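Quiz preparation item.
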């Protein structure tokens, strides 16, 4: 009797293991910044860096723009090769300037 129950349960258990439930792929929610807003962010970053490094905004180069889950960052350099990162919130408002 015990053997017969085992032979009935084993295929059922194996069938349960073989059937895998596929979940839908999750995608991160991304909010795109408009080109006009990103240019405004770049100019604000240049202005803040120029003020911090005591130079003109035309001598500041922004080289990278990255989007993270809850913020944006722009990396740049001065004419004297000093690097910095400007951070912005998800709406594109300036948060802070980090000297690197």
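Solution:
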């Amino acid at each position: 009797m015990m053997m017969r129950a085992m032979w009935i349960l084993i295929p059922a258990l194996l069938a349960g293991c073989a059937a895998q439930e596929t979940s839908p792929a999750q995608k991160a929610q991304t909010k795109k910044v408009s080109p006009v807003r990103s240019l405004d962010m770049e100019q604000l970053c240049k202005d803040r860096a120029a003020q911090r490094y005591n130079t003109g905004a035309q001598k500041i180069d922004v080289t990278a723009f990255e989007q993270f889950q809850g913020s944006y960052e722009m990396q740049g350099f001065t004419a004297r090769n000093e690097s910095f990162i400007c951070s912005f919130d998800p709406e594109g408002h300036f948060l802070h300037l980090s000297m690197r």
